[in-house]
């Protein structure tokens, strides 16, 4: 038996490592999703692949230099924001 894993959600169809991407992966029948986390300045876990926000958002700089609230101000594409691990695990 095979299991299908959505890499960073459904990143080919929706912004990677976002709530929309994870929902789409589930809607497409993925059994699991793979995601990435980085520690924020205030000790939260941000779900984002890179150590910086440069590639995946309209911001720049290391994830570790921002609080989770500050990271929420950046756009991750298609109206999505960087989620926390807590949000994703709900």
Key features?
90 residues, two-stranded parallel sheet, 13% strand, TIM Barrel, alpha+beta, globular, two-stranded antiparallel ribbon
CATH architecture term: Alpha-Beta Barrel
**How would you classify the helix and strand content by structural class?**
alpha+beta
Q: Strand order across the biggest sheet?
A: 1-2
Strand residue content = 5-15%
The unreliable regions are: none
Name the shape in a single word: globular
Q: Average pLDDT, to the nearest integer?
A: 97
Radius of gyration: 13 Å
**CATH topology type:** TIM Barrel
Query: In angstroms, what separates the terminal alpha carbons?
Result: 27 Å
Total separate domains: 1
**Major beta sheet summary:** 2 strands, parallel
Count of individual beta strands:
4
CATH class: Alpha Beta
Structure overview:
The structure is a single chain. This protein has 90 residues and is α+β, with helices and mostly antiparallel strands. It has one domain (5-88): TIM Barrel (Alpha-Beta Barrel). Helices cover 19% and strands 13% of the residues. The protein has 3 helices and 4 strands. It has helices at 19-27, 68-71, 85-88, and strands at 5-7, 32-34, 37-39, 45-47. The strands form 2 sheets. Strands 1-2 form a two-stranded parallel sheet. It has a two-stranded antiparallel sheet with strand order 3-4. The longest helix is centred in the N-terminal third of the chain and has 9 residues, at 19-27.
């Amino acid at each position: 038996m095979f299991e299908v894993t959505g890499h960073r959600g459904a990143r080919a169809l929706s912004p990677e490592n976002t709530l929309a991407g994870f929902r789409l992966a589930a809607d497409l029948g993925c059994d699991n999703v793979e995601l990435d986390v980085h520690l924020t300045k205030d000790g939260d876990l941000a779900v984002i692949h890179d150590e910086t926000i440069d590639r995946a958002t309209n911001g720049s700089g290391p994830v570790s230099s921002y609080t989770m609230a500050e990271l929420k101000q950046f756009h991750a594409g298609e109206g999505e924001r960087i989620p926390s691990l807590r949000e994703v695990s709900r």
